[in-house]
Amino acid sequence: MWNQLKEASDFIADRIEKQPEIGIVLGTGLGGLADKVKADHVIEYSEIPHFPQSTVEGHDGKLIFGEINGKRVVLMKGRFHYYEGYSMQQVVFPIRVMHLLGASNLIVSNASGGVNPEFEVGDIMLIQDQINLQPDNPLRGPNLDQLGPRFPDMSEPYDLRLLALAEEVAIQKGIKVHKGVYASVSGPNFETPAEYGYISRIGADAVGMSTAPEVMAARHMGMRCFGVSVITDLGVEGKIEVVTHEEVQKVAQKAEELVSDVVLELIGKWE
Ligand code: HPA
């Protein structure tokens, strides 16, 4: 695995001039950021040795290198989910490559179902902590000592200073945000009412099918993480409706401008 990571990152390093500082996974809510970047290099996943390939035809799979608000960034357009059939090692491969290229910070976004009764569809939740309910762990197996320790600390998965900064930005802009705990499940089915109830009772505010593995891999390498969820549906008793992918996409698109607005400014203020 180390050799594969090294080959992939060496391949990319030969093609870019400047190291990225921040890696950004363009999940739901952040897609628009791709239009905001002053891009100087675009590399398709299919060109990169050992890089996982997108399964869905027509789905983007590329790394965009450039600058946003004065910071060097690498955007990951097209992410990998466990439910698609990728191994956890594949799911986090791009995060590890971004780190090997120099990124010491990670921004991730996702769509999620709100299980906190105070949440409404379309709300934005800044992630303050996570519960990993995925059936596998990207750090399982021989430890890659070059990347981080065997037993990584998880006492602050999401950087509290960045979280406070993002909250400040949102308040200044008059954008309502919650802070909460993200539970990560494998999917691909949405939850049953009993499962939503369970997820709420164990201490989560929202549930989705990504992010936690990426953040575990990032923390293993000591990256500072910031995450944001768009609440696209509710798993709250009495408010549970049929959830479709289309509805999730529709709600997410509406929230996208606000999420991007906060993250753009956060990047500018990032130290
Ligand atoms: N559950 C899991 N993943 C999701 C949901 C949900 O309700 N909404 C969007 N992604």
Q: Determine Rg (CA atoms, Å).
A: 18 Å
Largest sheet: 5 strands, mixed, barrel
Mean pLDDT: 93
Number of helices: 6
Strand content: 15-25%
Which overall shape is indicated by the principal axes computed on the Cα atoms?
Answer: globular
What portion of residues is helical?
25-40%
What is the strand arrangement across the widest sheet?
5-8-7-6-9
Secondary structure class reads alpha/beta
Q: Uncertain spans, ≥5 residues at pLDDT below 50?
A: none
Cα end-to-end separation = 32 Å
Element pattern in H and E: HEEEEHEEHEHEHEH
Total strand count, please? 9
Which compounds are bound in this model?
A: hypoxanthine
Question: Could you give the topology of this structure?
Answer:
Layout: H1 2-13, E1 22-25, E2 38-44, E3 62-68, E4 71-77, H2 88-100, E5 105-114, E6 124-132, H3 160-173, E7 178-184, H4 193-201, E8 206-208, H5 212-220, E9 224-234, H6 245-269
Parallel strand pairs: 1-4, 1-5, 5-9, 6-7, 7-8
Antiparallel strand pairs: 2-3, 3-4, 5-8, 6-9
Helix pairs in contact: 1-2, 2-5, 3-6
This protein binds hypoxanthine.
Structural account:
This protein has 271 residues and is of the alpha/beta class. It contains six helices and nine strands. It has helices at 2-13, 88-100, 160-173, 193-201, 212-220, 245-269, and strands spanning 22-25, 38-44, 62-68, 71-77, 105-114, 124-132, 178-184, 206-208, 224-234. A five-stranded mixed β-barrel has the order 5-8-7-6-9, surrounded by four helices. Helix 1 (2-13) packs across helix 2, helix 2 packs across helix 5 (212-220) and helix 3 crosses helix 6 (245-269). The two termini are 32 Å apart. The model has no long low-confidence stretch (mean pLDDT 93). The chain binds hypoxanthine (HPA). Hypoxanthine binds at residues 111-113, 187, 190-191, 207-209, 232-233, 235, 243, 248.
